[in-house]
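Known limitations

Structure tokens in this collection are predictions and should be treated as such. Users comparing against experimental data should check residue numbering before alignment. To illustrate the layout, the record for UPF0145 protein GRI35_00470 is reproduced below. The input appears on top and the generated tokens appear beneath it.
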Amino acid sequence: MTVSTTPTLEGQPIQQYLGIVTGEVIVGANVVRDMFANIRDIVGGRSGSYERILSDARKQAIEELQAECGSIGGNAVVGVDLDYEVIGGTGSMLMVSASGTAVKV
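Generated tokens:
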């Protein structure tokens, strides 16, 4: 299934707009991982564990978006927007949200 941030797909005319679809993933932070990430912040460098978690959460949100699109008869999603938000009283949760328009091409 094609997923695009653009409003159209070149060479694939949109036949029908089916509505907005979304995918959301909320992941929790780990105390040990947070401790090592804080050390990296002090000494410099990238936090590979957080990057993996962020990448996995983004992939899961897009997969949910595709599943919702397919469930309403779509075969592509256009105008996709990805949002990232830290939530929870202590900022210990990360939410990744993907939204777009389900279409038939």
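For this record: The radius of gyration is 17 Å. The beta strands are 2-3, 16-28, 76-87, 93-104. Please report discrepancies through the issue tracker.
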